[in-house]
Amino acid sequence: MTVSNLNAYDQGKQALKNLNVDDQLGLLWFVYTKLGNSITPAAPGASGSEIAQGLFNQVKALPHQEQLQAMRDIAAKANTQISREYGSLSPETKLAFWYFLAQGMETKTIIPVPSDYKLPQAGKDLLTKIEGLSFQEQIDFLRGAVLPMGAEPASGSQI
After folding, report:
1. Considering its fold, how many domains does the chain have in total?
2. Inter-residue contact 32 to 102 (CB < 8 Å)
3. What is the pLDDT of residues 140-159, one digit of tens each?
4. Fewest C-beta in 10 Å: which of 17, 39, 69, 74?
5. Residue 49 belongs to a domain with what CATH number?
6. What is the enclosing helix (H) or strand (E) of 121?
7. The model's pTM
8. Parent domain of 70
9. What is the dihedral of CA 67, 155, 158, 46, to 10 degrees?
10. Do 53 and 98 contact (CB within 8 A), yes or no?
């Protein structure tokens, strides 16, 4: 099945599989910055915003290189505490978390994308595709992209 035959949610899930972790993070950054005006109302208004803000604050408290590693760990589903906490979030809370990260990157409280970073052609093609989607399809695409990220929460009282 080609990406064009899938709904927006499934396209989001499928699309990031073809990008390495850093390019997945780069694509999310570009999506949130380019489409921020339309996505902004959906993400922070989501139920669970306070939970997303709490996880964001944990990442924000880290040194910049550790912030980047935490984002990489989430994208790669690494078995770390922050990645497990992220994995336990609802889809809307995950969207809000990435929104807060993008906002933090703009204010430089979160490590910004390097100024010389270039999104690979596959990422550029995806960004163009996302820009052509309706608002609801953009949200569905993002939900599909960020939902599979994060490690499975640990059993018992451990996160």
Report:
1. 1
2. yes
3. 888 888 999 999 877 654 55
4. 17
5. 1.10.2090.10
6. helix 121-131
7. 0.85
8. 17-147
9. 50
10. no
Q: How many residues does the chain have?
A: 159
3-state secondary structure of 118: coil
- The answer to whether 83 and 132 have CB atoms below 8 angstroms apart is no
Amino acid at 74: I
Q: Can you read off the two tokens belonging to residue 135?
A: 């608002």
The pLDDT score that the predictor gives to residue 159 is: 52
Q: Please work out, in degrees rounded to the nearest 5, the angle formed at the alpha carbon of residue 15 by the alpha carbons of 9 and 21.
A: 120
Please give the helix or strand (H or E) that residue 100 lies within, else none.
Answer: helix 91-107
Q: How far apart are the first and last CA of the chain?
A: 36
Contact status, residue 137 vs residue 8, Cβ threshold 8 Å: yes
In a domain, residue 153? The reply is: no
pLDDT digits (tens, 9 = 90+) for 12-65: 777 788 889 999 999 888 888 777 655 554 544 555 688 899 999 999 999 999
